[in-house]
Amino acid sequence: MTLKTNQITEGVIWKQLLLFFFPILLGTFFQQLYNTADSVIVGKYLGTQALAAVGGSAELLVKLVIGFFIGISSGAGVIISQYYGARKMEGTRQAVGTALLVAVIGGALFTLIGIAAAPWALRIMGTPGEIIGQSLIYMRVYFAGMIPVLVYNMGAGIFRAAGNSRMPMYLLIICCLLNIALDILFVPVLRWGVFGAALATTLSQTVSAALVITALFRTTEEYRMDLRQLHFSGKLLKSILWVGIPVGLQSVMYNFANVLLQTNVNELGTATIAAWTVFGKIDGIFWMIQNSLGIAITTFVGQNYGAGKYERVKKSVRVCLGISFGITLVSSFLLITFSRPLYCFFVEDSQVIETGVFMMRFMVPSYITYICIEILSGAIRGTGETVKPLIITFVGICVFRVLWITAILPLHKGLRAIILTYPTSWILTTVMYVIYYNKGKWRRRMDEKRL
After folding, report:
1. DSSP 368-420
2. How far, in Å, CA of 277 to CA of 50, rounded?
3. How high is the mean pLDDT in each 10-residue block of the chain (451 residues)?
């Protein structure tokens, strides 16, 4: 088969980066809309308690598990992108088969563990008694569909690793619309409550998994799914886990720190939990942009690194930082300006709205301190180096936030002290990433290969 030209390793960097980035962004937007639909419909039709139930502790615990596996799929994406960029097609196909098996087995394990551990996890986080029952329902239905969730994320990662960011976008649009339709059917029409909201999400994710597998079977590219390649390659499994586990642990650290902070938020009452939940959805606009840029630069660096184009690697990082900076300024301005209308879209409770507007106006201006973390860590991961980013994140995010929670929050109770945890940890972590990016072992290794 004749290979198609891979534009990621050729052409004008900013154009190719944006052409790859925008489908990821649009897909991530629909992913965010997909997740937000539950909160909007639950908040409007079931009230503040139900909103807090699906978006407080329950959502964070689900993100903790999914975030770890997305790290594993990121590891698979790095390996696949490097093989694909180097035109090693047999290795590409073997990596695809190994990655999909990891998704199925991982999904089964997470389903069993998640369903069994959900009551304990909710209690340990101090979830208020009036919402813990609904939170448990939501978590167990969600975890029942964990295999489709992980299969979709792995399949989407395979397409992106090969430079195809459009296919995951198309699938997300379809499944987002399906999720919204099912939410409307199950919650206000059939009146199935929180169970209906969770079931809508689980069924939509099952459809997305089926579609991505079908797309992998039907593609004519060299990364297509072949049943003959659907077996573990010990060497590739080791490579995927070596890159993916540190990335997964990095995500776990973020989410674990957020779980600890959520525990403190839970002490402030149901209205604050609901405001924090809505803030997480609106706040997701910024994170979907940064996450999309992080995926783009990881794949961009991975393929160019695999192809030996090291100057292109460094130039792409500078371009991506510039794009991120510009988008962050615009999005921050819009979020602050429209904070109240955005909250009113989710809820009608005036206490929730006022608390939420305060959160946004206090937090959003600090977003600019985060952008180097996402871009530089993504670039470093694209070269296959994941241990040092793990250490940097562990110190800057997890250790620092735990120290803040144990040393600062007991002395300064309240929402303001909780929110301050984020920008202070971002500044510390950014400084460490900038130092390592410019002086680290990964940079010296790339320079030696170039020479």
Report:
1. GGTHHHHHHHHHHHHTT--HHHHHHHIIIIIIHHHHIIIIITTTS-SHHHHHH
2. 11
3. 53 82 79 71 81 74 79 80 76 82 89 90 81 88 90 87 82 88 91 89 91 87 73 80 79 74 80 84 83 86 82 90 93 91 84 89 92 90 81 86 85 84 92 87 61 53
